[in-house]
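Retro notes (design track)

What went well: tokenization of the new backbones is finally stable.
What didn't: we kept losing track of which sequence belonged to which structure.
Fix going forward: every design gets posted as structure first, then sequence, in one message. First example under the new rule, 409 residues:
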């Protein structure tokens, strides 16, 4: 039997409070970035930059003075964070390196064999890295193509990515989204690299990674969904066994949500939050724009069940199949997802354009919402170093606002 019973509204407020979104967390600076990522395990990376990268938008919504420069410093100067595979491409704390040894072993078996793509150029690539230091594929004059995961690619890229997947290389830094690699032993401490896999048995690994995913979101139900992607080899029966074990070991708390016939799980350390969920009339409302791959949205069926908000990221859909737009973000106000916004930063002019706006069925009172929306747009423009803001005619009409509500200096 579930330990706690929540209404959907209570579940929403707990989730948002856990994620630092309602009320807004006071995380700040580099220490705030580290505190949030350490709490949730990882944030998902995506190379698209329409109005900020996904991982930057996730942190911007939670770290009061978030700066992409601080994140780059933590990744490529301080080496406290690491680009790696977890929930797909992700950023996580460097101390988590040993827990992903089975990922690296998996790719070593899959890619490091004489008949594998680019195997014949590996000695040449290693020699170049040894002699010249960190390199990207553009720095290597190895131009023949080989079959690769998604499409044929240059052998230089396949070789570097292979060595990265099995852990011989790490990302030294990026030039925009172009990866520059170096040997792991030149970037990470030997003690960390030599730490054995803490979970060599499958059942221990599944339990660890399932618990990590619950902590990444704050609340997950026992149903198949994207939140479980990237847990190597996990099947439904193994997920069920891991959740039961974690609940028995008191690492997770089982929760029932009124009107939903599936069990939910939350981290045991979040019990104080669960037992002191704020009253829905006692918290200040704030507008936040959520990243398409925000941790809160990892299980979109669960979000629909709890928030009555059906969100699909349509960026990879043909134009004719899109219901909304190319890069559309959910809009959070208080405990509800009330709208969708389609922003775009024009790179040449540094103008932030709101291309469109779509309300959900229930609109918040204009007098309460408009000031918070203006503040949220100002924060987004400042974060993107935008010189100006413009609302399209469609967005202006939907929002009942002037086309240019302000200009950012």
């Amino acid at each position: 039997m579930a330990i706690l019973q929540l209404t959907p509204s209570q579940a929403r407020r707990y989730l948002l409070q856990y994620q630092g979104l309602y009320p807004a967390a006071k995380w700040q600076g580099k220490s705030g970035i580290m505190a949030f990522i350490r709490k949730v395990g990882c944030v998902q990376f995506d190379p698209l930059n329409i109005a900020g990268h996904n991982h930057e938008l996730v942190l911007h919504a939670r770290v009061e003075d978030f700066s992409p420069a601080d994140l780059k410093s933590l990744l490529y100067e301080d080496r406290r964070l690491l680009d790696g595979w977890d929930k797909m491409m992700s950023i996580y704390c460097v101390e988590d390196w040993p827990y992903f040894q089975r990922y690296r072993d998996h790719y070593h078996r899959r890619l490091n064999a004489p008949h594998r793509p680019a195997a014949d150029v590996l000695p040449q690539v290693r020699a170049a890295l040894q002699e010249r230091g960190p390199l990207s594929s553009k720095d290597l004059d190895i131009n023949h193509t080989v079959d690769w995961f998604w499409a044929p690619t240059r052998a230089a890229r396949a070789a570097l990515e292979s060595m990265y997947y099995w852990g011989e290389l790490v990302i030294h830094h990026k030039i925009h989204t172009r990866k520059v690699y170096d040997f792991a032993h030149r970037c990470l401490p030997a003690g960390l690299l030599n730490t054995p896999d803490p979970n060599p048995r499958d059942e221990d690994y599944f339990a660890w990674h399932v618990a990590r995913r619950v902590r990444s979101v704050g609340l997950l139900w026992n149903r198949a969904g994207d939140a479980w992607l990237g847990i190597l080899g996990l099947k439904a029966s193994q997920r069920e066994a891991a959740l039961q074990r974690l609940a028995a070991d008191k690492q997770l708390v089982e929760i029932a949500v009124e009107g939903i016939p599936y069990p939910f799980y939350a981290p045991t350390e979040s019990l104080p939050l669960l037992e002191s969920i704020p009253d829905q009339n006692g918290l200040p409302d704030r507008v936040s724009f959520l990243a398409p791959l925000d941790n809160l949205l990892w299980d979109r069926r669960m979000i629909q069940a709890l928030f009555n908000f059906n969100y699909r990221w349509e960026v990879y859909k043909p134009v004719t199949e899109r219901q909304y737009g190319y890069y559309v973000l959910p809009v959070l106000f208080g405990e509800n997802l009330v709208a969708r916004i389609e922003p775009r930063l024009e790179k040449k002019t540094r103008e932030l354009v709101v291309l469109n706006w779509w309300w959900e069925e229930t609109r918040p009172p204009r007098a309460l919402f408009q000031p918070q929306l203006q503040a949220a747009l100002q924060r987004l423009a400042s974060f993107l170093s935008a010189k100006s803001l413009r609302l399209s005619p469609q967005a202006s009409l939907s929002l009942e606002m002037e086309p240019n509500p302000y200009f950012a200096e």
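Added context from the reviewer: The domain at 312-399 is CATH 3.40.630.30 (Aminopeptidase).
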